[in-house]
Amino acid sequence: MTTRTKPGLRPANPNFSSGPCAKRPGWSVEALTNAALGRSHRAKIGKTKLEQAIELTREVLQIPADYRIGVVPASDTGAVEMALWSLLGQRGVDMVAWESFGSGWVTDVVKQLKLADMRRIEAGYGALPDLTKIDFDRDVVFTWNGTTSGVRVPNGDFIPASRKGLTICDATSAAFAQKLDFQKLDVVTFSWQKVLGGEGAHGMLILSPRAVERLESYKPAWPLPKIF
Predict the structure, then answer these.
(1) Is the pTM for the entire model greater than 0.90?
(2) How many domains does the chain have?
């Protein structure tokens, strides 16, 4: 039988949420004093807390006033899948990946959406692909910061301000930790769990006016699950 030794050094902040992801500095159980436990998200207290979360997200991340922010189910995965299933297919797409989560989005587009006009722009674990190969007249899907490798794009300069396609960015390991150039991003997703040390289940979906216009004018060829 394996004998486990007690660690000699403990984390300075012993409070962890699902993931495990560290709770914010200064967190204590008193933060749950006014939690809307056992209440519907449609109740007044639930709606008020969701509105507050959205307003604070816009303020802290400096999200443009004309971008829409939504709280969605199924964490960051749910937010990304909503974007892929609802927005892709109108034009070709470049899938940019260099670690496991980005590669997972490639797999979904290939095996589930089965898009014919799809290009892979990939790099090995620990490296960043050649970003100059991306065609922004096409839709582009990428992670800002690779969760499993820690390799991130340096900034948003590689994305042109004038582009025909949408940029869909999984920012779950970047939001609140790295500066996001929202003017270059049409869809941004993250989870409360990963970036804020919250509980699992809640994702954030941020849409530019261009992404909203696509949603309102484009109907995908495949049926959309009701949750989307």
Answers:
(1) yes
(2) 1
CATH of the domain at 99: 3.40.640.10
End-to-end CA distance of the chain: 48
Averages of pLDDT over each 10 residues, the chain, 228 residues:
83 82 87 89 92 97 98 96 98 97 96 96 96 99 93 98 98 95 98 87 97 98 92
Has residue 160 been placed in a domain?
yes
